[in-house]
Amino acid sequence: MEKDLNPQISEVQETPEMESEAPATSADRPRNGFSTWRIIQTVISAAFVVATLFTVWMPGSLVSKSLEERMSEAVLAENIASDTLGTPEPVSATFPNNRIGIVVGHLGYDSGAVCSDGLREVDVNNSIATFVQKRLIELGYHVDLLEEFDERLNDYRGIVLLSIHADSCVYINDLATGFKVAAALSEKNFYKSSRFVNCLSERYGTVTGLSYHYQSITNDMTYYHAFDEINSGTTAAIIEVGFLNLDRQILTENPDLIAEGIVAGIQCFINNEVIKPTPTTPGQ
Hints:
Elements: H1 16-19, H2 33-57, H3 67-85, E1 99-104, H4 121-138, E2 142-146, E3 160-167, E4 180-182, H5 190-208, H6 219-222, E5 235-243, H7 248-253, H8 255-270
Parallel strand pairs: 1-2, 1-3, 3-5
Antiparallel strand pairs: 4-5
Helix pairs in contact: 2-3, 2-5, 3-5, 4-8, 5-8
């Protein structure tokens, strides 16, 4: 429903008395020095947040930089934002400290992308997620394997939650290869979410040798439905592990290697490991 936002304006006739009003003295003028400085501080803080958002999620059509450059800038922006806006808010002492949620993309909902020979994205996602769960359990974590629209996502509490997906099976061009990672643009704890993205991106690329295909990050990733369903204390991200066309071999024949890259990224975040960006293009 549209609302009438136009205020009713009454006509005021100017009178001689109004014209002859004495000019305001210095005592009558508002003292704007303090408020102006506060405004400047607010603008600077907001600028740092926006800069970090653009560094991590800006499409390649607008920012053409290598993964190493992008990630180095993102880590620097995180440090600046942390110094400017304060440290991350601590979660409750009763918050689970060993629980991890893994969403199997499309499971229980649909097939996801389907290749001409019948290969389904949901099956690739499930295979990789199963290896991830197995490895994390071996490391001592409690791991929940979740469906796409699992009821347990409502107020889900854990160290992290990661949704695993694969990209299109349709041939686009020779550059349609590699992975991408994103977190919620509206994430309250921006420092944690951006660090989780950086950890996953660096470790996954290093382990698998796949390149970071940031040009194709979409709104479906940054506004992924689960981000709005889980508890605000749970840090979450979504990963497209590769393209079902050009990356088909590694995704279908080496799901354990794909899982190893994901687990390395999760551990990097949980253990607060140092991120050292390295080339992720195959052959380098």
